[in-house]
Every structure is written in structure tokens, then in C-alpha cells.
UniProtKB/TrEMBL annotation:
Domain Cytidylate kinase: 7-234
Catalytic activity: CMP + ATP = CDP + ADP; dCMP + ATP = dCDP + ADP
Lineage: Eukaryota, Fungi, Fungi incertae sedis, Mucoromycota, Mucoromycotina
GO molecular function terms attached to this record: ATP binding; dCMP kinase activity
Protein name, UniProt field: (d)CMP kinase
Length: 239
């Protein structure tokens, strides 16, 4: 016997969603789908091909033809090329909001996200519950996963953290990866996060919003291990 368990993780930028989702997926033997990486990959393709991000129709065509895959935990492929690092730069996030609010792009990516969540990939080994039932599933993170993509997910978590904590963490991350733009400061990153959160919260299609049945988790004063364990406990409580 095998049961499907889908975990939807949403929240504002740099709150800790993807770090938590990836580690949780690893612990549970679940698949991990980074929906934000899909919007980032479409943005990268538009910039690389010189498509204006405000050209609604051309951007939709780009999204429609982009082949986005997650070949292993935490890696992203666009049209057969590894773009895991290329999609994490400030150039991408500075251009992403018009793409994330394009209804055609959202419709295309939403279809792909739903089918990925139902793929039941053999690589997702899952875990044995009470020595009998096999639990298999997926962790998906983004902005609209609990509200629009997987409204019937078995567990929904809304991750938040204080703005200055998020900005500092993102700064440290970019610095560590040598991806900081010239002269980029913590303040500039804080402004980007604020602007993006505002755009994500106020757009007409699938805005960032806590689902009514989501559990809020504030990671400001937690370690990564603590936040992963907190969600893991919620999974066992639900089973
Ligand atoms: N509890 C934590 N303590 C310290 N750093 C954290 C914590 N949670 C996440 N981070 C770091 O903060 C940064 C942003 O986290 P990330 O998971 O990318 O957020 P999101 O997916 O919400 O944008 C990453 O560099 C991550 O390693
Ligand atoms: N399900 C999703 C996931 C991401 N997005 C958009 C909105 C976000 O500002 C960007 C980037 O998201 P991502 O989670 O990769 O990046 P940040 O953590 O915000 O830096 O993509 C979205 O609109 N819907």
C-alpha cells in the first residue's frame, strides 16, 4: 500500500522556503519541485533571447517552449542546460515580476507543476509509516502552491521571517556564491525583496497569500535544522 502526501510551502522572498523544502524532501525521500526556479528559468530565457519582459505574448511563447527539468535534488535544467547558478543572480530577480504576473506564463507553468506533483517518479522512494504503509510524495515551494497549484495538499506551510533577516541571509548567500553584483549591498537586496513581495502580493493572478488552512512558521530565530524538523513533525502529526 502506498499513500500520496503533498507538502505545499509558500511565503515571501528569502524566508527559507527552498532550503527547508529541499532538506525535508531529502529526509522523507520525497520529490522536490522549486516552482520559483521555473519562473526564474523563463526570465533567464527571455533575457538571453532579448525578448522584452513586458511583451506579454512573446514571453508566453518563451514559457510555452521552455523545457524545464529538475534532474536531481536542487538542480535545474533549461533546454538541456544546467542553469542552477545562472537563475540565482540579481539580474534575474530584477526582471522577474512582469513575468510572474503574466497570466499565460502562470497557466503554462501551473500545468507543468501539477503534472510534476503527480508524476510519482520512481526516484521518490518515500518512507514506511508504522512499518506498514508506504508514504510517497512531493514538496513544492513557491507563492501560490497551497492556494492555487495544490489546494488539496495534505500539508500547507507558510514560511515567514523578518525583512532584515531575509535580506542579510540573501546577501550572505550571494556573497558565498560569488554572485553579488558590483556594489550590491544588504540595503539594495532588502529593497528588492520588498518590491518583489509587494508585486507578488498585489498581482491579479495567483497572488502571494497564506492559504486558510496553512500553518505559519517564522524562521527568523530558528536554525535550518529546527525549521525542517518542525515541518517533519507536522507531517507525522497529519498521518
Ligand atoms: N534558519 C536559517 N538560518 C540561517 N540561514 C537560513 C535559514 N533558513 C534559510 N537560510 C538561508 O537563507 C537564504 C534564503 O533561503 P531560501 O531557502 O533560498 O529562501 P526562499 O526559498 O524562501 O527564497 C539561503 O541562503 C538559506 O541558506
Ligand atoms: N509559485 C511561484 C514561485 C515564484 N514566483 C515568482 C515570484 C518571485 O518573486 C519569483 C522568484 O521566486 P523564488 O522563490 O525563486 O525566489 P526568492 O526566494 O523570492 O528570491 O518568482 C511566483 O510568482 N510563483
Amino acid at each position: 500500500m502506498s499513500r500520496l502526501f503533498r507538502i505545499a510551502i509558500d511565503g515571501p522572498a528569502a524566508s527559507g522556503k527552498s532550503t527547508t523544502a529541499k532538506l525535508l524532501a531529502k529526509k522523507l525521500g520525497f520529490g522536490y519541485i522549486d516552482s520559483g526556479a521555473m519562473y526564474r528559468a523563463v526570465t533567464l530565457k527571455c533575457l538571453d533571447q532579448g525578448v522584452p519582459i513586458t511583451d506579454t505574448q512573446k514571453v508566453q511563447d518563451i514559457a510555452h517552449h521552455a523545457k524545464i527539468r529538475f534532474p536531481s535534488l536542487g538542480t535545474v535544467e533549461l533546454d538541456g542546460k544546467d542553469v542552477s547558478t545562472a537563475i540565482r543572480t540579481s539580474r534575474i530577480v530584477q526582471n522577474i515580476s512582469p513575468i510572474a504576473s503574466n497570466p499565460g506564463v502562470r497557466a503554462t507553468l501551473a500545468n507543468q507543476q501539477r503534472s510534476l506533483a503527480h508524476a510519482n517518479d520512481p526516484a521518490w522512494s518515500g518512507f514506511k509509516h508504522k512499518n506498514t504503509e508506504k508514504i510517497r510524495g512531493v514538496v513544492m515551494d513557491g507563492r501560490d502552491i497551497g492556494t492555487v497549484i495544490l489546494p488539496d495538499a495534505e500539508l500547507k506551510v507558510f514560511i515567514v521571517a523578518e525583512p532584515h533577516v531575509r535580506a542579510q541571509r540573501r546577501y550572505d548567500e550571494l556573497k558565498e556564491k560569488n554572485s553579488l553584483a558590483q556594489g550590491e549591498t544588504v540595503e539594495a537586496i532588502a529593497q528588492d525583496l520588498e518590491a518583489r513581495d509587494e508585486a507578488d502580493r498585489t498581482r491579479k493572478v495567483s497572488p502571494l497569500k497564506k492559504a486558510k488552512d496553512a500553518i505559519e512558521l517564522d524562521t527568523s530565530h530558528k536554525t535550518i535544522d529546527e525549521q525542517v524538523s518542525a515541518i517533519e513533525k507536522l507531517v507525522y502529526d497529519r498521518l
